[in-house]
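Researcher: We're teaching a course module on how sequence relates to structure. For the next exercise, students receive a sequence and then see the predicted structure as tokens, so they can try to spot secondary structure elements on their own. Here is the exercise chain.
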Amino acid sequence: MFAVERMNILKSYLRERGKLDVHSISQLLGVSEVTIRRDLEKLEAEGFLTRHHGGALLRSEEEGEGPPAVIAPEEAQDEADREEIARVAALMIRDGDVVMIMNGRIARILARKLSVRSGVTVLTNDIHVALEVAAQAGNKAVLLGGSPDPESGALFGSLAQTNVQAFFVNKLFFEVDGIGEQLQLSVSSQEKAALIREALACSEDKIVLCEASRFSRQAFFRLGPLGLARKVVTNTSVPESYKSRIFAMDIQLYTSVNAFEGGD
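Model: And here is the predicted structure for the students to work with:
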């Protein structure tokens, strides 16, 4: 991984979390702590962060610049929906599972909820997910290589697609950005669609994560029919018309209401 790629990942992670730990991120990126410290020195010189013993802080957070962020009601509801989906998805993961969690906002919440599990191996293309799992005692994170997307903190590209072919996972969790009227899955980028397609071929159980508000929407890149998956996890507010059609396809639909009503 080139230095500029590492620093893009570091920037993305700091924007998301506000701080990072040198030891954890050096292990995940497969470079020495000395290398990470040098990267942090460069970013500090740019005024992006402030280094401290063992890590770094995003400078604007440390100095408390600007007024506190105001969270709009719809954004708060979206976050509550993602929390609900992640909670249900976490119930599907058992001790000792080998799973892949694709990048996304639900994925990061799901990763945090794995702290109560043990012996779980998580393959991911999301640097935030990887660092979260790596910090959990007893669980292991494996980060795919690839080209980093600074905005999302995820790895994509031909290297990521090639690397994922070397693995097999019990369960694949992937977020989609839309489920259209014809039950077609769609995502926001071609790179994300391509990586999900490769991951589908390397997984036993395929699980879609999608907020109810994204039903009846179509993102720009078509992934394929809903039948690519065996399970869908969404919110209780999913339209009834979709519920009946999903059941008719013999695809299991999970919400917080039915999360405890059966297993696989």
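Model: If you want an answer key for the exercise: The longest strand covers residues 169-175. Residues 61-66 have pLDDT under 50 and may be disordered.
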